[in-house]
Amino acid sequence: MAIVGNLLPANAESVETDASAWAALVNCATPIQGTGGTLGSFCLLYRSVAAGDVHVGLASRVAVTAGAEYWACASVFPPAVGGQSRIEIRWHSSGGTLIGTDQGPVVTAASQQWHQVGVVGTAPAGAATANVVIRSTATAAAQSWFADRVFLGLTGPANVTGNLLPFNTSSMEVDTSGWSAVGGTLTTSTSSVTWYQSMLFTASAAGEGLVQSVVAPTVTPGVEYAAALSVTPGTAGLTHRLLIQWLDDTDTQVGSTSTDWTPAVGQWSRCTVVDVAPPGATKARVVARPTATATGQQWAYDRALLAPTSALMVAGNLLPYNTSDFEQDVSGWTVTGGTKTQSAEQSLGGAYSMKLVASGGPLVATLVTPVPVEAGLGYEFAPISWQNTTRRYQTLVEWLDASGTALRTRWNTWNARASEWLVSRTGDLAPDGAVSARLSFVVPNADPGEVWYLDRMEWKLGGLTLKGALSGGGGVALTARGLTTGGPSWVWSLTRLIPGQPAQPVRGWNGDLTSQPITGDVAVVTDYEAPLGVPVQWRVIISNPSGVGSYSYTCAPVTLPAEATDVWLKDPGLPQRSVQLTVGTPMPTWRTVARQGVNQVRGRRLPVVLSDVRGGKTGDLTVITETEAEREALDWVLASGSPLLLQWPPGWGERDMYVSVGDVQAAPIVDYAEFHDRTWVLPLTEVDRPVGGVTGNADRTWQTVKDSGTTWASVLADADTWLDIYTGA
């Protein structure tokens, strides 16, 4: 299998087909395919023509990018007499001219042992191609050398994302030049976590040694950083301290942060320390302090890291790194109903997770320090859990005021599946007065000994939320955010929730908002069909069309104002036409038509009545307008002849209904031309709720029109009529 990121052809990398990808360059016989190797069944065999420097290189150069940093390496097997080897990257222009060479260190190996040679270099200006050349020093003619597992690739993908340490300092794949030691010596080792080799510290005496990075990358005060090393000791029970040493511009230490570890023998342990760069710190160095109990004790190091924690976490996570990922310890959480430990048994991305073992009953993990929030913004709590059983569990967000009192609690219940990681997303809006949030993961009825693992505890702005606010035209403006939380193929729905009634779909732009395709993270729609004077809630639901997975959010109640003497007459398609009217006397006398035929049958005293469902209501509604503007508004809503929504104040005992308005009468209250009061009689016939969507909204003004384009030409370009401009259609 080809090495990920290798720019070399597969046959140049492992020579499993033949040796045609390689060419003799200097003092070298034609290379051939040899048996054995480190990557497959075969390797590259090249022989010296005479004593001296032997060069073998790629038969064809590979493309590179000027200014990019590359790493080349190979495994080399010397002859019985042992020998020295190194590897080079030779940079060429597009025309083939050699414009530079980067050489790796000379590695001296014992006889007939595979060893690693490597080099890191930056492609110089003008470089378009590169050749990888392996150089060996022969002591006689016809000495045989073997090479395998040859690599050339960018160092960026090979290094940890966000790592401030250079590639060789992080990986030790070339040599140990990125490190210095006190109280011992540094060499390379073929044992490794990733790639091919690590750094080995051998204590020269009992006591505390020191291994530190030569480079001290730039840091910013107030920013959180993590330093890490993978460590394996040669002796059990040895103490190992890992530090971040904070330095100023003069390389004077202004502080240090440390953690103590006792790595297990025979395995790699990831040691991490996390802290915020103190005031005055402009640089930082990674420092290891192994404690030896005798001369010759050893520690192997690999995968060194120094990085801002923002580069190691999910983008936007507002929790501290260790509270989220547990790479240093599990001190950020308190547990009741069980025990907590840092565990490498299960992990997601990093080396560790937090292991919970239940004692029986409720098992609760709660954030020790509530996280700051800003009232009115939406947040999402998304822990990831792994468990050894199928169980219902809960996520909990408690919004706290300045005194620590809970203002509101948001619960979500989930179904866990055994032996797999599951993410649980809970979105909510921070209520007025909230300054912080307390987060909890709850297993309500855990069995004794039940095991859970938590990792990547995420808290960030966003998530699926819904907020309602009063709008013009007797509507409620609804803003849904986080619609893309589930995935690009999911759909969304918006329903109205009224106590004692089934959920009702909200009318959107093209019809009811049911199973709508998701085209963006935010959607804003105004509901003009919500009843007056009663608290109403709305629920947004996103779901996977395949039926696996869904999220929902129910917003806080909103109550539309209701005047004791007024009704609303609304056009569901053009809410700009809607009008609030004062009801006059007499109140409507409703009639419901009986659809029946009475048949007198010969020989029967009573008739036979054939009936159908009873018809809807009909009746006359009397309303009063006092001004010319009110009269024009009523004329406009009636002008379309479309079905209208009639809404009543809640105390009248009437239910909202759609009506068709017949021939209208408008009579002056007094016979005086300059007195504008009118009494209107609206003959109403109850009809079904019409289909179709909403066009525009009642809050649209000329300022909205002005802001919609830089010139009148741009405003008019998208409209066929002045009505289109007015409504925003």
Q: What's the topology here?
A:
Elements: H1 10-14, E1 22-26, E2 32-35, E3 42-47, E4 52-58, E5 62-63, E6 69-77, E7 83-92, E8 98-103, E9 107-109, E10 115-122, E11 129-138, E12 144-154, H2 155-158, H3 167-171, E13 179-182, E14 184-189, E15 198-203, E16 207-208, E17 210-213, E18 224-233, E19 240-247, E20 253-261, E21 269-276, E22 283-292, E23 298-308, H4 321-325, E24 333-336, E25 338-343, E26 353-358, E27 361-367, E28 371-372, E29 378-387, E30 392-400, E31 406-415, E32 422-423, E33 426-429, E34 436-446, E35 451-461, E36 465-471, E37 475-481, E38 491-497, E39 504-505, E40 516-517, E41 522-527, E42 535-543, E43 550-554, E44 558-559, E45 566-570, E46 579-583, E47 591-592, E48 596-599, E49 608-611, E50 617-625, H5 628-639, E51 644-647, E52 657-661, E53 665-668, E54 678-687, H6 702-707, H7 712-717, H8 722-727
What is the CATH fold-level name of the largest domain? Jelly Rolls
Which homologous superfamily in CATH is the superfamily of the largest domain? Galactose-binding domain-like
Mean pLDDT: 93
Name of the CATH architecture of the largest domain: Sandwich
Describe the structure.
By secondary structure, the protein is mainly beta. The protein has five domains: about 10-160, Jelly Rolls, CATH 2.60.120; about 165-310, Galactose-binding domain-like (Jelly Rolls, Sandwich); about 320-460, Galactose-binding domain-like (Jelly Rolls); about 465-560, Immunoglobulin-like (Sandwich), CATH 2.60.40; about 565-595 and about 615-685, Beta Barrel (Elongation Factor Tu (Ef-tu), domain 3). The longest helix has 12 residues, at about 630-640.
